[in-house]
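Reply to dn_fold:

You asked what the input looked like. This is it:
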Amino acid sequence: DELDVDAIREKISNIGSSTVVIGDLSNVRIHIHLEDPGSAISFMVPYGIISEVSIQNMDQQHEEFKDKNPTSANGFSIIAVAAGSGICKLFRQYGVDVVVEAGQTSNPSVQQLVDAIEKVDSEQVVLLPNNSNIILSANEAAKSSGKNVSVIPSKSIPQGISALLALDKEKSLELNLPAALDVIEDICVGEIARSVRPFKLDDGENIEKGEYLGILNGEVVVGGKDLIEVVLNLIKKGLIDSFELISIYWSDSVGSNLAIEISDVVTSRFENVDVEIFEGNQPIYDLIISME
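and this is what came back:
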């Protein structure tokens, strides 16, 4: 009873990093990175009942992924185009050898992609453009290079991540490509951004400049003033199949506290669906949402 969220946030931030504390007088949710998870649990004991404890060893997870997906000059290398420090970090953690940093409005040139191809050791290369506007340049770069370059036509960050996770560097490139190409077709991608002008939805609803627009697989389908409401309506439009996982990538304009609140609301509204949130720091879009 009578939990002081601000005081808890201030005190627990002294024992770890990347701390996020949200809640109210009766319930508080905490996210923290630290070496000794027991110290966080002990810290909370005097405040009340502890529940839903989840402890993950991030270093171990990263090592296990590297063991499963070793980089080998005898195999193939992976290059991805991405924007946002969090998104770029994710791609590197998931096995990308070179990340070409570019944005929605600053696409890389063909020469930049060729330079990235030449930078990697392998003679076989997988290129993930992760933007429909970059696919043509990626294909041109593949033709210009003397290496064997396969372009997986990923049109978004979620498609690129799904394709990346389908790749296994212990297997030949020929065996990998069909799975990676198939998986990008199974991803439903949502994006939410502020409208730069008044917009009229197909159902006749008028969205004012500065309000949120919800884009589903490249088409504007919902909008409104309240971000959480737009998220829920967008997911409802996308969940027409038996999806099991929703991944949400949040930008600096949203922040970690609101991202966790959105995650909690989505989890409560959609049964039998796991929800993950990631710090993306991506430009343009306040949120990128993957449904798979």
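Residues 70-74 have pLDDT under 50 and may be disordered.
Hope that clears it up.
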